[in-house]
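Q: Please design a sequence for this.
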């Protein structure tokens, strides 16, 4: 132990200066912990978690961002402090919901838990003749099989025991490949860590939840990192000799992607092909390997699904309008939903504009980081290839973000350093001087160049703070839809505990926990997914029309009608039926002699169609 009295007069101030980044970091985490203690989420409004959060949360986020900026802007500061701040950001923005909510978010996460439960129950994969539409998950079983093994290994009942923490875990999985990608083009710690920060605050799309996409995206970035670092022309003779090992690793990563998710392999193919057309990465092994593995899976295990879905997939090519569709069920309704939608748009638009400014301002990046610019641009054609259930615009944004965040970070820094010394050395070896090298680069890349921006030093941190704060409404503004209280989970669980085989569950929509529970033995019908004319017919005479739709169930199976607060929130905030219309449906069923109420609590109500009906 060092005695402070033994230190020289200059030693203590030097050590204090080296350790000062810990102060704002600890203050921010303390404010976050205080906010978690005094935030009440029992009655969320249309602004979701935004209006429910204690004010100290916002103060903590501001302190964290300020501390990060003044730490990372010092190029001599150790990267460990930047890493600590990024981890603090992930805790505050990805772990908050897991701490505040007693149950996991997102109906889709509960659906994936049901698929895992099916694998554990059936002991193997099944076909469309046995599972219907849900057989698609058995044809891309990689993620679910791995999670089933993890459930068995941990000795828990199901994946719901840990999937609330999955957004934090999946975000951490992205950190290493991001760092490897960025370090391929620069040693400037300011640029690397600012890009990582911007990536996380701009990645509001929500694909970090418990899903195959979350793991496939991390593997996708891993493949890109390997290709950028090991398949470039600067790899040398030793690099070429070791490419067989890296090709084996790529094959493993690509196989894991292909067997887990439908869209990610396509995004990976277009990215690798774009890289292969550049002089530095003119190596077709990664692209060909990915295409071969992808086609092999599509022509074997995934063939039943693709055969049935191919006509619709072909018809959707070029249907750009489906990605920006509005109207019934696709228009945010209410002040909170509209605010959330605009916050997300402004956040994404700002990052993309910053990326454009970074490309124009930082001339050296246009040459050294050109491959990363291609990585950002390559997914854009997928926007017109398919609507992907009206979600392609969000997926394209997510796959574009790693490259866009890098150039956006460059726009916030006055001047960045790259690994251009290697390039200059190579040109000088060929008989060029640094001066002719620079002039040749200007001739080869005649893009416009902006003059150095003349603004105060306070503008970049304010921009960074605005983006960090905007992440919260973009990511958590719809928690009224995505959060299910314990009472709602208990009500739905009561339904499946008593439902006989071949029973039918009728609900307004699928936005409730356990919506796909035991899907291999219980059928579901969500009437808001039906034709609008039939929905209007139900609204005019709910009990009679619903009883007619449910009458085909034969004993001993039963027909149930379930209405929960999650369904009401989803219907109202997405422009389907409003609260008054759904209340009319519930009151009609309640007073009808055709239905019997079997369960009710604060989160919803459950009815069963009487056998005589």
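A: Design:
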């Amino acid at each position: 132990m060092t005695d402070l009295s033994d230190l020289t007069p200059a030693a203590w101030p030097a050590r204090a200066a080296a350790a000062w980044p810990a102060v704002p970091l600890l203050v921010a985490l303390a404010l976050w912990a205080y906010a978690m203690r005094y935030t009440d989420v029992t009655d969320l409004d249309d602004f979701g978690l935004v209006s429910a959060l204690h004010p100290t949360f916002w103060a903590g986020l501001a302190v964290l961002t300020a501390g990060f900026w003044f730490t990372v802007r010092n190029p001599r500061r150790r990267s460990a402090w930047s890493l600590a701040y990024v981890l603090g950001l992930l805790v505050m923005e990805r772990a908050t919901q897991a701490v505040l909510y007693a149950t996991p978010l997102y109906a889709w996460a509960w659906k994936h838990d049901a698929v895992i439960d099916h694998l554990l129950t059936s002991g193997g994969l099944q076909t469309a003749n046995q599972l219907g539409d849900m057989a698609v998950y058995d044809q891309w079983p990689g993620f679910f099989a791995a999670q089933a093994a993890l459930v068995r290994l941990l000795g828990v009942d199901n994946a719901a025991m840990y999937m609330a923490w999955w957004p934090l875990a999946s975000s951490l999985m992205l950190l290493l490949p991001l760092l490897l990608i960025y370090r391929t083009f620069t040693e400037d710690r300011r640029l690397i860590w600012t890009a990582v920060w911007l990536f996380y605050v701009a990645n509001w799309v929500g694909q970090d939840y418990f899903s195959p996409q979350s793991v496939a995206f991390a593997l996708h970035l891993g493949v890109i990192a390997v290709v950028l670092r090991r398949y470039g022309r600067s790899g040398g003779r030793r690099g070429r000799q070791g490419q067989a090992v890296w090709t084996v690793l790529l094959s493993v990563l690509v196989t894991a992607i292909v067997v887990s998710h439908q869209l990610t392999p396509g995004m990976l193919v277009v990215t690798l092909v774009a890289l292969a057309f550049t002089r530095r990465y003119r190596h077709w092994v990664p692209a060909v390997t990915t295409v071969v593995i992808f086609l092999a899976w599509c022509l074997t295990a995934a063939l039943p699904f693709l055969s049935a879905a191919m006509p619709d997939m072909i018809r959707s090519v070029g249907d750009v309008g489906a990605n920006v569709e509005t109207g019934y069920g696709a228009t945010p309704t209410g002040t909170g939903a509209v605010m959330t939608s605009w916050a997300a748009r402004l956040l994404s638009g700002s990052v993309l504009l910053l990326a454009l400014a970074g490309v124009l301002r930082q001339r050296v990046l246009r040459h050294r980081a050109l491959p990363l610019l291609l990585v950002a641009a390559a997914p854009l054609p997928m926007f017109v290839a398919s609507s992907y259930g009206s979600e392609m615009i969000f997926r394209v944004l997510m796959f574009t973000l790693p490259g866009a965040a890098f150039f956006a970070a460059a726009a916030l820094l006055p001047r960045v350093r790259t690994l251009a010394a290697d390039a200059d050395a190579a040109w000088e070896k060929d008989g060029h001087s640094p001066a002719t090298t620079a002039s040749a680069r200007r001739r080869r890349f005649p893009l416009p160049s902006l003059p150095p921006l003349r603004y105060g030093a306070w503008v970049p941190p304010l921009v960074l703070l605005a983006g960090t704060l905007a992440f919260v409404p973009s990511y958590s503004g719809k928690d009224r839809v995505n959060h299910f209280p314990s009472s709602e989970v208990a009500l739905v669980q009561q339904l499946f505990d008593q439902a006989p085989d071949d029973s039918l569950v009728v609900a307004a929509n699928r936005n409730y926990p356990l919506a796909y529970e035991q899907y291999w033995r219980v059928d579901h019908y969500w009437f808001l997914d039906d034709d609008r004319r039939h929905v209007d017919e139900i609204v005019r005479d709910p009990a009679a029309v619903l009883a007619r739709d449910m009458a085909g169930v034969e004993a001993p199976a039963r027909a149930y009608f379930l209405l929960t607060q999650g369904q009401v929130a989803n219907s109202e905030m997405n422009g389907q039926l409003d609260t008054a219309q759904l209340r009319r449906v519930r009151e009609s069923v309640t007073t009808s002699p055709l239905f019997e109420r079997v369960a009710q609590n604060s989160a919803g109500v459950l009815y069963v169609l009487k056998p005589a009906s």
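Q: Thanks. Anything notable?
A: The two ends are 83 Å apart (CA to CA). Residues 121 and 555 are 25 Å apart (CA to CA).
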